[in-house]
Amino acid sequence: MTKTHKDWLDLNVDNIEPMDLSTVQKVHLKQTILKKTTKKRMPKWVRHIAAAAIIGISTVTTINFAFPTLASQIPFMKNIISYFDNTGTMFENFGNYATEIGQVQTSNGISMMIESAVYDGTSVTISYALETDIDLGIHPFIGGDFMDFKGSVGSGGGSRLEKVSDTKYAGYANLTPHFNKEAPDEIEISWKPQSFINMTTNAEVKGEWAFQFSVSKLTGAIQLVNEVVTNYDVTAKFKTLVKNDMTTVIHYEYAVKSDLLKEWPFISIHFDELRDNLGNLYTVSGNGAFSKDDGISYQTSATVQAIDPAATSLTFVPEIYFSLGSGKGMEIKEMDPVTINLE
User: Fold this and answer.
1) Which pTM value belongs to this model?
2) Residue 240 CA from chain centroid, whole number
3) 53: domain range?
4) Model pLDDT for residues 61-89, shown as the tens digit of each residue
C-alpha cells in the first residue's frame, strides 16, 4: 500500500537509522538509444547499433505538485551518483550543481527515492534509489512509461540501476527532451514507474509510484560555431556550444540524401571523444537524435564535462553509422576531423 503524506509525517525520525547505499535499463523509444551499461567500456558498434532517432508525441498536461516527502526523513540513500565511476565524465561534478528533490514513495514493499537532479539546458540527469527486501536481481528493469517532460514532443536517453547491497539499489537517468521551440528555463518532470522487473527471473513487482518535480536550468553561455563537414552523402553541421560550470553541450544537425536511405534505412552520426589543444581528452555522451522527416534530417546534441578554461580549441572525428537495423548489418565510416575554436 502506498503511504500517504500523513503516514510519512507521523514517522518517528529519531528511530530511523541511516543505512549504507550503493540496470541496466534502456529507454524503449521508437529507436533505442544504447547507453553505457557497465564500468567497462562497451564496443562502439554496440553503443550505436541503432540509429539515434527519437520521434514521439507527448501529451501536454498541467502538473499539480504534491506535497513532497523529504528524503532527510528516510535517509536510506545519499550521494547516489558517487556509487558510479564518473571520473572524467560529465557527472563528475554532479553533486556541486544538483538540485535536491528529496521525494520518497513506497508501494508494494519497494521504497523509491528521487534524490537530486541537474538540468543543463539540454539534458536532465536524475539520481534515484530503491530500498526493498524483494530480490530484484542485479540490474532491475523499470516497467511502464519512463519519464514525461512538460511541453516536450519526445525524449531519448537511458538509465542505469544496479544492486549495491542486499536491500538497496542505486541509479541515475540521463535523458534529453526535445521541444518544438527553445528549451524552457525550468523543466517540469513527471515520473510514474509501474513496476520493477528482475531481469534474471522475469519476476515483476507492480506498484504505484508517482513523482512530480521541477528543475531550473544551469546558467551558461552560448557560442555560435557553424562548422560543416560532408562525407559519403551525409552532411553534419555543428551549430552551437552551450557551456556552463558542469557541462559543455555541442548542438548539431545532420542530413542524408533520401536515396541513401533505400540502402541504409538508419543513419546516425556520433563521436565518442574529443580533445582540446592542451591534450585533455573528454568522453562524450550522446543525447539522442530527433527527426521530423522520417530520417532525412536530424537534430541532436552531445555532452561532455566542462572544458578546461585554458583550452582554446576542441577537435573530434565524427563517425557515420550506416545501419540496416539491429542485428541486420552495419558499416561505420569516419568523417573529416572537426575543430572548434573556443571563445
Assistant:
1) 0.70
2) 20
3) 5-216
4) 223 333 334 444 445 667 788 777 665 56
Query: 284 and 272 in contact (C-beta within 8 Å)?
Result: yes
Residues 36-51 have pLDDT tens digits of: 333 334 444 444 433 3
Tell the residue number behind the cell numbers 557560442, with chain if given: 223
pLDDT tens-digit map of 208-243: 999 999 999 998 899 999 999 999 999 999 999 999
Pair (133, 273) in one structural domain: no
Domain end, chosen from 190, 216, 242, is at 216
Chosen domain end from 185, 216, 247: 216
Same domain, 107 and 196: yes
